[in-house]
Every structure is written in structure tokens, then in C-alpha cells.
Amino acid sequence: MQASTRLKSSTLDRSLQKTKGDANLSTFALLFSEMVQYSQNRVDNIHDLQNRLADFGKHVGIRVLDLFFLRVGKDKREVRLTPMLVFIQKVFWKYLFNREADNLEQHAQEANVYYLIERECLVNKFISVPNDKTGIIEGVLCSSGFTCKVLAQQGPRGTTYIINFDKSVMERESRLDSK
After folding, report:
1. Is-above-0.70 flag for pTM?
2. Closest CA to 57 of 145, 146, 152, 128
3. Could you give the domains of the chain?
4. pLDDT digits (tens, 9 = 90+) for 56-84
């Protein structure tokens, strides 16, 4: 008898170019739950927990953005503020969560404040304010050259991510507008 040899495949051996598809909700729930429990065991108050989840999200955002551009084969990233925010709302959000963010708005009085609105937030099934997503947004924007601070707020319209851009970003935008 001839023994059949089967090659074992490791996750690390797979190509980054190939994607298998969507992640299972139960898998996401397990990983997210473990991340929250891990963080809860290492903090003293809720503020520290939120900061820790945001830090996790920043690392995820930076890495997933790099992976996205590697997979789609796009060499250039957005350098203007509005196209970058629309990219996050429509393309990147769909890449991560299989649906676009519901709305993108600019603050009426403050030019450096934008709102990304999500009516049905997947993470809200597991935690009240999704600070990991604030970290993802902040990581994507900061790694792309748009220094900002992102906060999440629950409201009647769903989860609103408040994106407050640094003064240097707005100055750069005004210089680019004047060209």
C-alpha cells in the first residue's frame, strides 16, 4: 500500500493576495470577547479600558489598511481629506464590515470636525461604545497622514464617530485648495 502524503497548510504559508471571504460572526464575537476580557483584566477603570480598546483598534486599522492596498494592488493613497473620508466610509468600511458606513457629515461651525455615522453597529451587540472602531478609524487616518483624534458617541441615529482633525491637516488642505 502506498501512503498518501498530504501537505499541511499553515495560515502563515498562505498568500496575502488571496482572500477566502467573510469571517463568521461567532468567530468575530469570540475574538472580540477575548480582547475585551484581556483588556479588562489589565485596567482599573472604564476610561483605561476604552483607551486600551482604541489602541488595539489603531494597530488593526494600520495593518488592515496596508493589507487592503496590497490586495487591491493600488499603489497610491488619498492625499486630500474629503476623498480619504469618503474612501473610509464607502470602500474601507465595506472591506472590513461587509457594508458601508451610513453617513459622513461635516460639523456646521468647525471645519476640522467630521462625523461618520453607523446606524447598526455590529460591535454594539457586544459592547456599548465601540472604542476599538474609533482606534481603527484613527489608525487609518493617522497612518495616511491625517493626524486626528476620534471619539465614539451613542445616539438615536446610531453610533457617531467624531473625527477631530489636527490643525496641521486643515492648514495643508487650505494650501492644496489654493493651488
Report:
1. yes
2. 152
3. 25-178 (3.30.1380.20)
4. 999 999 999 999 998 888 778 899 999 99
